[in-house]
């Protein structure tokens, strides 16, 4: 059993029964020149999560942990894009339209894919999701249950949207989630802070919040793991 320092209290897991879930680290959200930046967001706030997530990804692979990647996006014919989602925001260029990195949030397009730094390896499930939560209209639950996974370590973007929605969905399905604070990010610093507070409040009403350095220490006991400079 491994234990990770976390809030509101230690997160314990068997390495064989935990999955690393990396949410929506897609070019359109994270890379300069993508949809997120075109909407006026500062993507450097999201990019802070890349290096710690890459370290966690490497350690998880080394430990033989199940690694799952998710991508938010839609079929090229947009048949799974709710009209309400398409209309929201009255965007001049929105989901399904030609954007700076191909059609925005459309499967198969360059911008929809995962950033090079966190590219999935063969054998790692990539879950394509039409919504914010990774369980809604996907086979994520079946993938996890078929491997007896009951605990999730969660990284990705954005903290208050797809990360929070996924953690809440997971919680209602009986999963324990550890969210790594330095491996999730938001375009809005205040939302980042509050979204993490919400998860760990009231004795961990939705889950646990920890730091990647403490997970790395738990995965490599005996090995000195220093906290990288922020
Ligand atoms: C958003 C996400 N923010 N992955 N998607 O629309 O959080």
Largest β sheet strand count, sense and barrel closure: 7 strands, mixed
- How are the strands ordered across the major sheet? 2-11-10-9-4-5-8
Could you name the CATH topology? Answer: Rossmann fold
Count of beta strands: 11
**What share of the residues does DSSP label as strand, in percent?**
15-25%
* Global geometry: globular
CATH class: Alpha Beta
Query: How much helical structure, as a percent, in the residues?
Result: 25-40%
- Mean pLDDT, to the nearest integer, reads 95
**Series of H and E elements:** EEEEHHHHEHEEEHEHEHEH
Could you name the CATH homologous superfamily?
Answer: Isochorismatase-like
Q: Strand pairing plus helix content: what structural class?
A: alpha/beta
What distance lies between the first and last C-alpha atoms, to the nearest angstrom? 29 Å
Counted by DSSP, the helix tally is 9
In the residues, how many domains can be counted? 1
In the predicted model, the low-confidence regions spanning at least 5 consecutive residues are none
Bound molecule types: dicarbonimidic diamide
Cα radius of gyration in angstroms: 17 Å
CATH architecture: 3-Layer(aba) Sandwich
């Amino acid at each position: 059993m491994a234990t990770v320092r976390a809030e509101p209290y230690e997160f314990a897991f068997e390495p064989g029964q935990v999955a690393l879930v990396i949410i929506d680290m897609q070019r359109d959200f994270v890379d300069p020149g993508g949809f997120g930046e075109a909407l006026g967001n500062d993507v450097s706030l999201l990019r802070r999560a890349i290096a710690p997530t890459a370290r966690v990804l490497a350690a998880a692979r080394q430990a033989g942990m199940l690694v799952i990647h998710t991508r938010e996006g839609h079929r090229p014919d947009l048949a799974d894009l709710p009209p309400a989602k398409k209309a929201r925001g009255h965007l001049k260029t929105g989901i399904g339209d030609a954007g700076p990195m191909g059609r925005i949030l459309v499967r198969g397009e360059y911008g929809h894919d995962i950033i090079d730094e966190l590219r999935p390896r063969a054998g790692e499930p990539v879950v394509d999701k039409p919504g914010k939560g990774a369980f809604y209209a996907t086979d994520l639950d079946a993938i996890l249950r078929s491997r007896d996974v009951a605990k999730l370590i969660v990284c990705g973007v954005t903290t208050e949207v797809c990360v929070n929605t996924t953690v809440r969905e997971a919680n209602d399905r009986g999963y324990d989630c550890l969210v790594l604070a330095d491996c999730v990010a938001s375009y809005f610093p205040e939302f980042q802070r509050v979204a993490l507070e919400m998860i760990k409040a009231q004795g961990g009403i939705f889950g646990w919040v920890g730091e990647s350095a403490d997970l790395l220490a738990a995965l490599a006991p005996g090995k000195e793991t220093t906290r990288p400079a922020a």
